[in-house]
Amino acid sequence: MSEQLKFIVEQLNKEPFKKNFNLVMFDSLEPIQLLQILNDVLAEIDPKQSIDIREEMPEQTVKRMTSLLGMLKYKLQDNMSDSFQQGLVTGSKSVIHPILYWLLQRVPDLKKRAYLARFLVKLEVPAEFLHDDIVSDTYHQYEELVEGFKMYHKECEQLRTSGFSTAEIRRDISAMEEEKDQLIKRVERLKKRVESVSNHQWMLKQARQLRMEKEREESLAQQKQQQKNQLFQAEQRVLRSQQQLKDMRQSAADANPESLTRRLEEEIKINTYMVTEKLPKELESLRRTVQYLQKVASEPAMGQANIRELEDRIKDVDSQINLLIEKKMLRNDPIDDKLTLYRQQASIISRKKESKAEELQGAREALATAEKEMKQRHSQSSPEEEVIRGDELKRLVAKLRSKGTAYKKKRQELSELNAEYGVLQRTEEILRQKHEAVQEKLQAVEDEKGISGYSNTQEELERVSAIKTELDEKKGRTLDDMSEMVKRLNSLIVEKKSALAPIIKELRSLRQRREELSQEYGEKKTQYESCAAGLESNRSQLEKEVKALREEMAQKENQYHYINSMSEVKILRSCCSNGYRNLELYMKNIAEQELLGKKLREEQKMVKENHGANMEQMKMWRDLEQLMECKARCFIKAQNQGSVGHVIQDEAKDMLVL
């Protein structure tokens, strides 16, 4: 019950319910709340059930829910059938919990069933209303629509499960539209080419008539072939009917009351033997086999001690049987010799009867199979099927004649066997009577000698001996099968070991090689990481220097342009305001500024001259970094492909070159 509640709570917390319950909260719900939850689940299956049960009468709620549950094939429990409606009214947990558990287990299937029920559940119209023609016609149309809905729904389900997608259909449609456009363009081109020919309308008309006549010729040829086939099949049916009539006349000529009575008596005797003797023996044998197998299966697993104990018991029983047989042979009673002869004859007769009965049963089964196959072929044959003719028909007729001859021969053999069976049955009856008389005489002799029951004991010993022999044979076969199975398993294990030996040897060498390569890979990886770290630090340092030089160069250029412009402005201002009083001072400043500008230009020139070399060196460091990354990738790839040694040699060469 706890598992049931746990499952209900898990499903109600999922989509589309999202109730956020736990076990305690769900178990403590009021009856009206529990009934509302049941109604919500039913509304998810059938949207028409979406109702607030507080706005509905209890009787209507019970009627609505029971009708929907009946439509969904919900089975009531036997101990709840009487109180089901009362439990729905009161919101009983013992009624609603099983319903929720059953519904939440199969929501998708129940949705489909509810959807189909809207269209497939037929309306019940009273019989007296169906006598009206309008009502009857409308009801027939309604039934036809229901059948049509079944067919369309089935086709829709087949299309859904057939694997076709809308994308594939759209692609096919677009491809067909393109082909259509191409054909239209081709037809237009052909029309333009034909319009230049004189009398093209008359020629098109003649071509159209020619095409129609060819189609008509093909249709007539097909009709002619069909009529030929129908004529041939009619001839074959006539021949078969004539043959059947001939066989019936022959059977009627041979069918006198005495032969029919004798045949029926033979069939009755055969059926009586099958029912009273053969089939009960087979059934009893099967029952004994089943009991023996059940006994073997019910026993616990036997150890070597139990097997030895059973073998010792079997040896003791064998020794007792041998002693009894020796006593019997020493006694050498003439009455027993006669009984032995009779028993042998009776056993021979019974074996013949059983073999003939089995042959008869096999022949009957073969006849029934042939008749069933013939009926299936007749039911599956149609007038349009391809017919047999010519040499194949002749071969078929010859084969049928040979089979008819063989059938007559077998029928004659069967009649002879039936006659022999009658003789054997009569002989068996006579021998049985003699055996009973001898048994009575033997019983009287045993009573006189005071050894009553000796013959029964002997027969019981013979039966036990036969059972023991049969068990020995079964045990021997079982042991042979087990030994053969053990031999096959041992040979299979040896083959698998021999097949796996070179693979294991190769695997060991590969494992050792893998360890060596892993160690070497670790060393090379450490070297690579240290080298890459050094290169990265040098590259970053060079980048910083280049950046600093660029910034310094830009700063110097700005300073130069600023000083140059300011000097020019000062010269102009001084010339305007003071004239040429401070000309010498400004000329001195100009000379100093020119020296400073010359110095800055030299520094700029030096920076520009070294800029190309610095950039080239920076580019070389970047190429070196890319080369090292490429070698690392090649190393990892070569490690996976088993050629690490070659990659290491190439890497050493490249390092020497660098």
From TrEMBL:
Q: Where in the cell is it found?
A: Cytoplasm, Cytoskeleton, Cilium basal body
The answer to whether keyword Cytoplasm applies is yes
Q: Which residues form a coiled coil?
A: 166-251, 407-474, 500-559
Main localization is cytoplasm
Q: Which GO terms describe its cellular component?
A: cilium; intraciliary transport particle B; microtubule organizing center
Q: Which residues form the IFT81 calponin homology domain?
A: 3-124
Annotated region Disordered: the residues are: 369-388
Q: Which GO terms describe its biological process?
A: cell differentiation; cilium assembly; intraciliary transport; spermatogenesis
Which UniProt keywords are listed?
A: Acetylation, Cell projection, Cilium, Cilium biogenesis/degradation, Coiled coil, Cytoplasm, Cytoskeleton, Differentiation, Phosphoprotein, Spermatogenesis
Q: Which Gene3D superfamilies match?
A: Intraflagellar transport protein 81, N-terminal domain
Q: Which InterPro entries match?
A: IFT81 (IPR029600), IFT81_CH (IPR041146), IFT81_N_sf (IPR043016)
Family annotation (Pfam families): IFT81_CH
Q: Which family does it belong to?
A: Belongs to the IFT81 family.
PANTHER family for this protein: INTRAFLAGELLAR TRANSPORT PROTEIN 81 HOMOLOG
What this protein is reported to do is described as: Component of the intraflagellar transport (IFT) complex B: together with IFT74, forms a tubulin-binding module that specifically mediates transport of tubulin within the cilium. Binds tubulin via its CH (calponin-homology)-like region. Required for ciliogenesis. Required for proper regulation of SHH signaling. Plays an important role during spermatogenesis by modulating the assembly and elongation of the sperm flagella.
* Name of the protein described by the UniProt record: Intraflagellar transport protein 81 homolog
- This chain's source organism reads Oryzias latipes (Japanese rice fish)
